[in-house]
Amino acid sequence: MTIFFKTCLKRDVLYAKWQGRISVNEFIDVFHAYTQGDHYMPGRSELIDTSEMIDFDVSFHEMRGLLRNVNSQSTYQSVKTKTVIFCPNDYIFGLSHMYQKLAELDNGIKVELYEKEHEALAALNLPYSTIYDFLVKETLL
Questions:
Q1: pTM for this entry
Q2: pLDDT digits (tens, 9 = 90+) for 78-103
Q3: Residue 51 — φ and ψ, nearest 5°?
Q4: Which homologous superfamily does the CATH classification assign to the domain defined by 3-137?
Q5: What residues contact 112, with CB distance under 8 A and at least 6 apart?
Q6: More exposed terminus of the chain, fewer Cβ within 10 Å: N or C?
Q7: How far, in Å, are 8, 60, 85 from residue 46 at the CA level?
Q8: Could you report the per-residue pLDDT of 101-127, keeping only the tens digit for each?
Q9: Is residue 77 a contact partner of residue 43, using CB atoms and an 8 Å limit?
Q10: What's the DSSP call for residue 96?
């Protein structure tokens, strides 16, 4: 898979790494696996690392549908998840910005975009300057 995820329970953060070309179906499959996993908790902050991502094969309509799925993780209320996306690539930043703008129109996740690792980590109050440091110094399950 080109999306993998792990949870840092101590810091209450989900870390997801997106690599290569991502399809809508892959996102749906991984999101389902995440929400069915042992460490899933609605509303847990997320750090999405797109530093090795090349493309996301998604239309505007599909992106709106994905956002609705993310926001309806709980059947009783919108899930207010803080999603921090580290996106140093201009093209991926643009795609992420579209997702961020769509999220602003909905009552659910809050998306923040950062081109620098240390800024993305600081947005989640993680005391590291690189994602590598976070991954090697914390326990992720």
A1: 0.88
A2: 567 899 999 999 999 998 998 888 88
A3: -60, -20
A4: STAS domain (3.30.750.24)
A5: 82, 83, 84, 85, 100, 120, 123
A6: C
A7: 10, 22, 8
A8: 888 887 778 999 999 999 999 999 999
A9: no
A10: H
